Amino acid sequence: MSTSLINTKLLPFNATAYHKGDFVDVSEQNLLGKWSIVFFYPADFTFVCPTELGDLADYYAQLQEMGVEVYSVSTDTHFTHKAWHDASDTIKKIEFPMIGDPTGRITRNFGVMIEEEGLALRGTFVINPEGEIKVIETHDLGIGRSAKELVRKVQAAQYIATHDGEVCPASWQPGEETLAPSLDLVGKI
């Protein structure tokens, strides 16, 4: 049984990312002060991964409007990320940093390393501006994620962060009613 990382702080890391034609340094400090998504995937030049990253790229502008930065991470190098970006029309759409984690330090920090394969599970982490993990979603390798649902989860996390005492019910969408837990609601929902 593993311990949940919900509400824990980011652990320190330093890495190199491929971002908009350059190699850039990234650390946990880059994630502070704004909402962030750290999006782990098993490997470049594979099958489900480009469908997920392409889907996320399609929602990147909306996430940016929400004040969210996205960081994709695999245990490939930043050089491999560049090569994949140059070779794939789907990956060419990506405008967010693609972090290389060849040592697996970041992947282990987030608890999504498959040790016997040296690859990451499909792990998604939503992190608040204070560096606390607020959403975790982990999938087996054959199950792709939905960027549309991820956007909804970020919207809910941002809403409850600014509306003390309120919670978002299942499938909540912005503008819909929330709940204010109280003794009066017990057994009424």
TrEMBL record:
| UniProt cross-references to Pfam families, sorted A to Z | 1-cysPrx_C (PF10417), AhpC-TSA (PF00578)
The UniProt entry's sequence similarity note says: Belongs to the peroxiredoxin family. AhpC/Prx1 subfamily.
Native source organism of the sequence:
Pseudoalteromonas luteoviolacea DSM 6061
Occurrences of domain Thioredoxin (ranges) = 4-159
A single GO molecular function term of this UniProt record: thioredoxin peroxidase activity
For this protein, the Enzyme Commission number is 1.11.1.26
Q: Which reaction does it catalyse?
A: a hydroperoxide + NADH + H(+) = an alcohol + NAD(+) + H2O
Q: Matching InterPro entries, A to Z?
A: AhpC (IPR017559), AhpC/TSA (IPR000866), Peroxiredoxin (IPR050217), Peroxiredoxin_AhpC-typ (IPR024706), Peroxiredoxin_C (IPR019479), Thioredoxin-like_sf (IPR036249), Thioredoxin_domain (IPR013766)
Gene Ontology terms: biological process: cell redox homeostasis; cellular response to stress; hydrogen peroxide catabolic process; response to oxidative stress
Gene Ontology cellular-component annotations = cytosol
Q: Where does this one sit in the cell?
A: Cytoplasm
Q: Which residues form the active site?
A: C49
PROSITE patterns, alphabetized:
THIOREDOXIN_2 (PS51352)
Give the superkingdom in one word. Answer: Bacteria
Chief localisation class: cytoplasm
Q: What is this protein called?
A: Alkyl hydroperoxide reductase C
What enzyme class is recorded for this protein? oxidoreductase
Task: State its role.
Answer: Thiol-specific peroxidase that catalyzes the reduction of hydrogen peroxide and organic hydroperoxides to water and alcohols, respectively. Plays a role in cell protection against oxidative stress by detoxifying peroxides.
Kindly indicate whether the keyword Oxidoreductase belongs to this entry.
yes
Instruction: Give the multimer and partner information.
Output: Homodimer; disulfide-linked, upon oxidation. 5 homodimers assemble to form a ring-like decamer.
Q: Which UniProt keywords apply?
A: Antioxidant, Cytoplasm, Disulfide bond, Oxidoreductase, Peroxidase, Redox-active center
